[in-house]
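Proteins fold reproducibly. Consider a sample protein:
=====
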Amino acid sequence: MHKSIRINWGLILLMLIISQGCCLLQQPNSSSDNGLKDHYKAYFPIGVAVNTRTLNGEESQLLLKEFNSITPENAMKMEVIHPREDFYFWRDADSMVNFAQNHQLKVRGHNLCWHEQVPNWMFKDNNGGLVTKEVLFKRLKDHITTVVKRYKGKIYAWDVVNEVIGDADDEFIRNSLWYQICGEEYIAKAFEYAHAADPEALLFYNDYNSERPVKRDKIYRLLKNLIDQKVPIHGVGLQAHWSVFEPAEKELREAIELYASLGLQIHFTELDMSVYPWEKNKRQKRSGESDRLTPELEAKQIDQYAKVFKIFREYKKHITSVTFWNVSDRYSWLDYYPVPGRKNYPLLFDQNLQRKKAYQKVVDFKE
């Protein structure tokens, strides 16, 4: 025998209304549902430096939501990808390029020639002495040709030569082993080798402190020399390892305009905003040295991020890419350099991968 079931339609209707209201409250608005790449779609790609950990789990989800370009942080540096003359280690670099291909991301290759993270064998002969200029040129050509050809058509831009300008005011080209053995000529050669390996790739010179007037002028001099020699160079990478204390607006604008006057594309390649003043040399953390993100430092960082992105948007005709150096404050190279163990907070996402207040200023185009 079936019992009749009385349905309280009024109660059901009330529950539906409450449920719908909760859904509406939880629904992200259209602006928060956009990533950085969406906000800047009309301006330039927004990239990020990645390591193998970045390509998995919640970090990869954040990457795909916010960014549309990647740069291997270390996987393509010479010491990592070519540790021995007769051996290339492709696994990590391949995984990053494959990840990009699978998710329709652009890839900036980093880097082909640098004075750091280069294996010792590159400069040594069988007796442990320095190789000749001819041998070093051959090794450089073999390395660049092999790496660039492997990723031809998959990497659209390369940092070909990295940080060759000296830091001292009176030093033009850094006195590295590259320079000691080959002279300044190796810089042009590197670009020529890369262009021959992939004529379609965009080729960049990349450096830091590129807004400081003395170094800026030396970088300009190098770029002008390369252009005058008809070297295949298409752009300049300004690393943008900045802090809440610099660069000043005037210096940043002057640098952009000076480099743009050469007809080169400008990429900001390694952007982060340290909460500490810039230091070149590594040192130990001092006793009592705080590494807390104070409200005052956070406010400075918010203002600095807002300022530089407003300038970026104004110069979108010349700026064709902006890349952050690491995804979030959970991990940054600045946690280890220049003061190992001192926590830094240089990015737009916090240690829980949540958007920081500075993020909102970066995507606020009204100011």
User: Anything to note?
Assistant: The longest helix spans residues 295-314. DSSP finds 13 helices and nine strands in the chain. The chain has one domain: 35-278+289-362.
